[in-house]
Structure prediction request, 469 residues.
Amino acid sequence: MSDKTNQGGTFTGQLGFVLAAAGSAVGVGNLWRFPYLAAKDGGGLFILIYLILVVTFGFTLLTSDISIGRKTGVSSVNAYAKMKKGWGFLGILTFFVPVLIMTYYAVIGGWISRYIVTYLIGETQAAAGDKYFTGFITGEISPVVYALIFMLITAFIVYKGVEGGIEKASRFIMPLLLLMIIFIAIFALFLHHRDADGVSRTGLQGLAVYLTPNLEGLTLGRFLQILLDAMSQLFFSLSVSMGIMITYGSYVKKDVNLSKSIAQIEIFDTLVAFLAGMMIIPAIFVFSGTEGMGAGPSLMFISLPKVFAAMGVVGPVFGLIFFVMAAFAALTSCVSVLETVVANCMEIFHSERRKTTLIATVIYCIASVIIVLGYSVFYMEIKLPNGSTGQLLDIMDYISNSFLMPFIALLSTILIGWVVGPKYVTDEVESSGHRMSRKGLYVVMVKFVTPVMMLVLFLQSTGLLNFLK
Prediction:
């Protein structure tokens, strides 16, 4: 029985677990990073590669994390030590990932919340301005307020516990999120616009840009870069190698069919990412051509507001729906990150949930304010090992996502594949009496393929493979 069962929770069953895990997996990365990478990396070519990786690497990492959690019954900080003596350091490394991510996730949630208010009060044209987003995040009061509000909402859900907070919120948010995405994606396909030069573009043409594999100028180096981009997206998308799925796995009852649950999480997360691309790329193509598909936050906070402004009377409505949807995605992910931090601290300090949540909330409110002010009061530009430059938020993101996560995945696959053996995981998956699908694939992937790929991804993220770019 999980240690956390004694302190307030398990998921009520398979559906509650799947929705909560999918809620963690579906975050803002699905809504802007996947569409951006698809546009950058050859459209349908990236999608095809990503789908293959999901059912191989994604399946391997997700199965490992969830099974470790349920088998050990503890959070990531103690799970690896319980698996094998001498490997406790890996749990400590894993613990630091959500600790770092939590410093900035509420900040991003605050940015999204600001846009909800923007569309509610009808500032559609203002939001489309080139300097609107920059003007907001460089402020010293408004972005702080929005980040703190988002942080407090997140903390309230975690404070309520596993069943009464996380599962209850996920059961409401995730189906609604999916319906919103499907609605906007279908609407985007029927968009039509003629620009000042008389060039006419349709949503269906944008869909073709999204789905058609672009092989122009494809070299071995370029293919490897697309492969690494898709693999990096898996970490963002599936919440693997950051302790979240180990923690959620420890809340799963022994009679739940893990094999089926993992497949459902894969499908839900990939479907949302695919639909996000189907929603965003055609819309941007219709009103901005291919020039509007910028990288990172600019896609969500600069390019899309221009699209909503160009839609006319329906623009404010769709702008509001989109950012409410993005807020839901950010909230479920932020909840899972804070829950992982709280669950680990409960085990480390032997404290109860509510007290631990309150202390963590105070700490992360302070951290969020510091990160927010990294764009104004504490502004700096620091060169990162992968060649990019960034502020405080980018530094936290780089250390957690680009450095620690592939390194943790590399070590965990070595531990499972060569130290304790794949049977440690496969037996746990089948312990409920249900056969593990893709069992043979899992063994091959965790022993031979995944460690090599994780090593390459780690070297690339640290800048040692920048020659591929």
The beta strands are 192-194, 200-202, 382-383, 389-390. The longest helix spans residues 315-349.
